[in-house]
Design a protein that fits this description.
mainly alpha, 11 helices, 79% helix, 0% strand, elongated
């Protein structure tokens, strides 16, 4: 029991302190602007571009897709920097030198970003309703909240993998930007999956966001939560696989870095 309590304490302290350290340079007003203005800017750009190209009747397609895609900001950038920042700050050696449970440390880096990412998606949906006319009158709001949570967890799973790669990569922001814009295209947020070539659909099906966005559109369109449950299980499973791959890479990197004495070497 004592070990469980210690691990829970380690998880919470690691989660909260890593998140505070990630954003310690931000003023509250700056952080608020990043959570409010950034989703609005992305929504406006892709919704108006998409409706100009395909017609105003397709607005909900782009609103829902981009609202859910907003979670990648925290899921990719936030989680990656929460892990990779340990190396930049020179604290990686101290982290690996502790006897703490590695899984607890690793997952703790994603926890606050899951909450932050879900908040960003909620704000984006609010903008969609208020400014862009998204109709949620036929939507199971509890089910939509579940979709937001599962999609955010899945995206953070990919972020954990990218975070582990950041420990052995010099220019991690280049990789992050590539993955973020890859998700913009391949997740179906702005390009219908049935209009993609078969090779693109194959990639889309193994990426986070894809199944969550489809589930979100179906639920907003009036479908029941049970009808989108298989999509949610697929989304969650994909996130777990990426997270486990990230943890495996994290542990392998620790062993190899200790063997070679290269914890602080890029």
């Amino acid at each position: 029991m004592k070990k469980i309590v210690l691990n829970l304490r380690l998880f919470w302290q690691g989660a909260s302190l890593a998140y505070v350290a990630l954003f310690h340079w931000l003023q509250p007003a700056t952080y608020a602007a990043s959570k409010i203005i950034m989703p609005l800017a992305q929504m406006f750009f892709f919704v108006y571009l998409g409706t100009f190209a395909t017609g105003a009747g397709n607005a909900s397609f782009y609103i829902i897709g981009n609202a859910l895609q907003i979670t990648a900001v925290s899921g990719i950038y936030g989680v990656t920097m929460s892990i990779g920042g340990e190396r930049n700050a020179g604290t990686l050696a101290y982290l690996f030198g502790t006897p703490a449970n590695r899984m607890v440390i690793f997952l703790g880096r994603a926890f606050m970003n899951i909450l932050d990412g879900a908040l960003g998606v909620v704000i984006a949906f609010i903008w969609g309703v208020i400014l862009l006319g998204l109709d949620l009158s036929h939507t199971n709001l509890g089910g939509l909240a579940l979709i937001i949570l599962v999609t955010t967890i899945s995206t953070c799973g990919l972020g954990l993998l990218m975070g582990s790669l950041s420990l052995v990569t010099v220019n991690v922001m280049f990789v992050n930007n590539f993955v973020y814009f890859l998700l913009l295209i391949f997740s179906g947020a702005n390009v219908p999956l049935d209009q993609m070539p078969s090779w693109m659909r194959a990639i889309s099906n193994i990426l986070p966001l894809t199944h969550g966005i489809v589930a979100g559109r179906m639920l907003v369109g009036g479908s029941s939560l049970s009808s989108v449950a298989p999509l949610l299980w697929s989304e969650l499973g994909i996130g777990i696989v990426y997270g486990l791959l990230g943890y495996l890479l994290f542990t392998l990197f620790e062993v190899e870095a200790k063997r070679r004495g290269t914890l602080e070497t890029f």
